[in-house]
Design goal:
single chain; about 230 residues; alpha/beta; Aminopeptidase; 6-stranded mixed sheet; 7 helices; about 15% strand; binds zinc ion
Length: about 230
């Protein structure tokens, strides 16, 4: 069951959507002037988890991370593509990328993701996840980068700054993360934890289409600001 959110939040979210939309409009000229029939650069979008690895599960809706990560990633793909940015997806279905007969499906899955991103020639990697924590009060979108990786840190901070302007529970800062999808690449790579499925109020937002549009729009604006600099 989804709890009704307070009257003020829809208004705030509408305002945030307008903010993101106006950012995107202001960048439309920059992007279209730089556009050629062939995308000038490519972004890899990695929807975390899949198949037997469903990730974390929403405390109220029971929707799993696998499903939501894919929904958000596909929305982001459409958004980037509409601005003539090339996109490669590590997965486009709910299935994992491992060989079903593999003895270590997790490792197999991660290796396949790495292969797809490396072979694509992508210049940026966005890995999309939903967070969770035993303490249900923990909440807030947060972007992770590899320790000492300056370019990834700048990208993470660019997205986090937009989150703070648009999302009601965004964390105050980015965080260092020691994860495969950050450690295995030389290109700017970030993990975007869009929010906590273990927090009932944030979960209620994360499953809404309007909120998905807001989060993805914010990631995109953060990306554009990073590219502009
Ligand atoms: Zn995850």
């Amino acid at each position: 069951m989804i709890k009704a959110i307070s009257v003020k939040k829809p208004i705030l979210i509408c305002l945030a959507i307008i903010l993101v939309a106006s950012f995107l409009l202001s960048y439309q000229g920059v992007i279209s002037s730089a556009s050629t029939p062939k995308p000038s650069f490519t972004v890899a979008i990695d929807a975390g988890h899949g198949g037997i690895d469903g990730g974390t599960v929403g405390v109220q809706t029971g929707k799993d991370e696998n499903f939501l990560n894919l929904e958000y990633s596909l929305y982001l793909k459409e958004l980037l593509s509409s601005y003539n940015i090339g996109v490669v997806m590590t997965r486009t279905t709910l299935n994992g990328l491992y060989n079903p007969f593999s003895e270590n499906k997790k490792l197999d899955d991660m290796a396949k993701r790495k292969e797809i991103v490396k072979q694509s020639g992508a210049e940026i990697l966005l890995s999309i996840h939903m967070n969770s924590f035993p303490l249900s009060s923990s909440r807030g979108a947060q972007v992770f980068f590899k320790d000492g990786d300056t370019k990834s840190q700048v990208l993470a901070e660019s997205i986090q700054t937009v989150f703070q302007q648009t999302l009601p529970f965004a964390r105050a800062s980015t965080s260092i993360g020691d994860y495969y999808m950050l450690n295995e690449f030389d290109i700017p790579s970030v993990i975007v934890e869009c929010g906590y499925l273990s927090n009932p109020e944030e979960e209620a937002l994360l499953v809404q289409d309007e909120y998905k549009a807001l989060v993805c729009g914010s990631i995109f604006v953060g990306l554009l600001k990073f590219l502009a600099n």
